[in-house]
Amino acid sequence: MNNSFTQSLFRMSAVLYAHNNNEAISQRQIIRKVIEDALLQYNKNDITETELSSFIEENYHLSISENEILDTINDRKFYDDFNVYKEKEKTLINLAPKRVHALSQLANEKSLPNYISDFLFEDDKKDEKCETLFRFLYTVFTTNLEGYKLLLKEKTVFQPDGSTFSDEDKELINAFLDWDNPGKNKAIYNLASYALEYCMLTNDKNTTLDLQSLRNKEFYLDTNILFRAIGLNGDDRKERTLRFLSKFKDVKETLKISSETRLEFTESINYYISKLEKAEQKASYVSSKIYVEYVDIDGIFKAYHKWKLARQNASPALFKAHLMSVYQTLLDEYQIEVDCLKPYEDDEQEDLLKGYSSQIYEASGDNKQRFAAEHDAKNILWIEKLRSVTSNNIFNTKAFFISSDQHLRRWDYYRNSNNVPIVMLPSQWLSLILRYMERSDDDYKSFVCFLNIKTSKTIIGEEQMQYIISGIGEMTTDINKERYIVKSFIQDEFENEINDLNEEELAEKARNYAKSLIEDENDSLRKANEDQKTLIENLQKEIAANQNNNEKVTKEKTTQDKTIKEQESTISSQNTTIDELSRENKKYKLDNWKRPRYIGWTLLLLLCIGFIILSLGFQNWDYNPCKMLILWIDSLSSDTQKEIGKWLVLLPCGFAIYIINQLYHLWKTNELPSN
Question: Which of 103, 394, 439, 508 keeps 20 to 30 A from 243, CA to CA?
Fold first, then answer.
């Protein structure tokens, strides 16, 4: 695979589908987009039509002549997008500045390589895995190319990449496809749909493809589409398939199933129901909750157990009635007609049918049973007979067979290489239908859903799991224990070729495995119980041995308690005595502290009182000192001196009041000062 070409495909798909493409597709419109992208990538001011043609062929593997280029850029619809002028007898072309700006904005949008890079962010094998995804996406492009090639009968086409994918590659691819990213889904859709535009560029005639070209056709559905639509391949596939069918209803196309498909559907349901009944009889100890939890395969067994979980009374017979009811509802809701007018007689076409059946069976690579190959052969012949001899392109072809069977599609393509293919994938038709309709994120997701590829990795089948879970369920009814044993069995026995065992052997192996685990667990529990019993016995002996000591300790404790109480009483008495002594000591110290102060203040108070008495009385006493002081003050000549003298006489009175206050506070004091 050419990586540069792949990158070119990614960019071109983004450019071609960056515009609103809900209009008819014409060669000239597509050529215009390719020219615009080429001029943008050329990154020079001017280019001749010859140089531009060579550049396109080299970078896009497309052959667009000089005349086609000139006719396109001179088209009145696109005249404002290009600048065309003569210089020295050469026609020079460039993009109009306004158009350059618009396209540059579109070119800066994220493309598939960007989404791949985001998906593989910080992956140690990023480059290797990136190459794997590039190869797969190139295959998506070439797969659609194969289908569109015969639809439009173009001259040349790239061959699909012959590389195969390992199981590890397939897991990576499916993880990328399942990655919930609307932008990525849209980019993949654009790439696959770009194959249609590529084919139109290489078509023999100037074709215009619009929605009207797809009308008045009959689309016959394969049984695998019906199985998906009624939920036998998982809820997600059911949702996506119903959305796919709704698109046919929206564009008023006719959906049909042949009487052969109806017969195959009924026989297949009966076949699987009989297997379910057999499994329910031989493997009746199955927890539906455990089955749904641990079985990854979306098949009829898982669908049955999911249905069974929500019901009290459930059986394969009731499940069959449920499926047939859903099937009939599907036909009614999506207006799917049952065509019972077989356009051929089986006897007359016996040899041809045998040849088809044998080829289909061989092409399936053991992925299909004989009776299924026979039904496919009858449906292929059915469509062939409905078509006219002039069914050489999509416009005059009336009938198609829609199937998700890749092996059947490839067989039909290579054996029918000169005619419009009978078998088309849902993804191919969905890309056509969505081309002319408003598209949502769910529509892109539905398209991508049809691209998942099956892994060939050996896994435990859904029927085998029925017997495994039943065998384990016989040994235990504990749901948590059963869950653990099932998980352990799958992990331990996956590589032990259990696929070669029949139902009884498989159930027996699972039963013995569960028995072994349970016995090991019981042995561990018994040992633990014995250890616990020994421990208890030893403790009992210790208790018995210490019982006498306990009585002695009890007596000693009683004596000690009595002694402690006596000591506590003594201590309490002593504390009382100490408290009394402490109080007396404090009182003694307080009295010793107060006594000199009482004496001192009292003497000073008596002196003040004596002074006051002598000042006011005893005036006739010649030796009265206070009288002498007053007379002396009166003899002073200065008024100020006399005023000062008055205050000296009055001072003892104020001091006496202060002393009385001090004595009062001394009397009220009950504690010694801290300092």
Answer: 394
On whether both 531 and 591 belong to a single domain, the answer is no
Strand pairing report for 254-258 and 218-221? parallel
With vertex at residue 292, the alpha carbon angle to CA 288 and CA 294, rounded to the nearest 5 degrees, is 115
DSSP state string for 33-81: HHHHHHHHHH-SS-EEHHHHHHHHHHHH-----HHHHHHHHTSTTTGGG
Do 656 and 573 fall within a single domain? yes
Residue 1 lies in a domain: no
Per residue in 598-648, pLDDT (tens digit) is 788 888 878 888 777 777 777 777 777 777 777 777 777 777 766 777 677
Q: What are phi and psi of 140, to 5 degrees?
A: -60, -45
User: Residue by residue, what is the 3-state secondary structure of 540-564?
Assistant: HHHHHHCHHHHHHHHHHHHHHHHHH
If asked whether residues 604 and 629 sit together in one domain, one would say: yes
Residues in CB range of 86: below 8 A, 6 or more apart: 92
Domain boundary among 502, 520, 542: 542
Rg of the chain, C-alpha, whole Å: 53
Dihedrals phi, psi of 221, to nearest 5 degrees: -95, 140
Domain boundary residue, one of 56, 87, 108: 108
DSSP string, 426-488: HHHHHHHHHTTS---HHHHHHHHHTT----------HHHHHHHHHHHHHH---HHHHHHHHHH
pLDDT per residue as tens digits for the range 326-342: 999 999 999 999 999 99
* Residues 649 and 570 grouped into a single domain: yes
Per-residue pLDDT band at 257 (split at 50, 70, 90): very high
Domain count across the chain: 3
Residue 305, domain member (yes or no): no
Question: 405-437: per-residue pLDDT in tens?
Answer: 888 888 887 786 667 788 888 877 776 666 555
Q: Which residues contact 595 (CB under 8 A, 6 or more apart)?
A: none
**How does strand 47-48 pair with strand 82-87?**
unpaired
What CATH code is carried by the domain that includes residue 76? 1.10.10.10
How many whole angstroms separate alpha carbon 496 and alpha carbon 476? 24
Residue 120 to residues 117, 277, 564: CA-CA distances in angstroms? 5, 46, 81
Claim to verify: residue 509 and residue 618 sit in the same structural domain = no
Is 554 in the same domain as 538?
Answer: no
Domain that residue 514 falls in: 462-542
Nearest to residue 194, comparing CAs of 410, 5, 39? 5
